[in-house]
Amino acid sequence: MNQGNPQMVMEILIVEDEYPTAEYTQQLCHEILEQPLSSITLVHDLAEALEHVDKHPVDLCLLDLNLHGESGYQLLQTAAAQSFHTVIVSAYPDQALEAFQYGVLDFIVKPFGKERLQEVLTGVKDRTNTGDISTRYLSVRTNEKYRLVEIENIRYMKSVGPYVELHFLDGKTDLLTKTMNRLEQILPPWFFRSHRSYFVNLNQIESFRHAGGGKYELSLKDQTVLPLSRSKYKHLYDLFHD
Questions:
Q1: Whole-angstrom Cα distance, residue 48 to residue 135?
Q2: Are both 105 and 46 inside the same structural domain?
Q3: What gap in Å lies between CA 181 and CA 187, rounded to an integer?
Q4: How many domains does the chain fold into?
Q5: Which end of the chain is less crowded, N or C, counting CB atoms within 10 A of the terminal residue's CB?
Q6: Rg (CA), the chain
Q7: Domain holding 44: CATH number?
Q8: Over the stretch 64-82, which tens digit does the pLDDT of each residue have?
Q9: Whole-structure pTM over 0.90, yes or no?
């Protein structure tokens, strides 16, 4: 075994419309990582890619920006809103500048070899091991388009049927098509699941209390009062009295 190769278990998504290139990339990933992976998924168009990242965990996305005439930038907006790294694999190096504005980790120019991909995977391993991965945005879909909203501008989130209602610091609201469980996986640690139906920005909590009769509640700085589950009351108490 080559001791210089990165050793990790990852969920890799390859988004490439050229089947030979997709299979070549997959084979190189297996050779470089040298151990069973959780998953390597190949998809060949934008719709498949968007559906996959919405329903499945991803650690690294290797993305071609030109997919049967469609732009991969829509997937980049989704990547910016979730906790996974993205590396562009493209024959057009002039696209690099715009891609890096979306926070991509690296840009591989086609054609490429094993050494170049190994360099990229090593970089991903190093960032993952140091915990250098965080979610700064959520992607809200409006009229078939995606819009990024900054998480730090959200006061709290509330489950409403199949949607999650976002309540912003400026009083505005928006709807998000993600489950509460999926949000729990990608939100930064300062967003606290105070109840099965609520996430709260810890920086916006003014107070919390036992309201009697087995009920608990928390108050935000804008005087909004939200329910607090009994188990989360204990957790919140420990956080504020650590």
A1: 22
A2: yes
A3: 10
A4: 2
A5: C
A6: 21
A7: 3.40.50.2300
A8: 988 888 888 877 776 655 6
A9: no
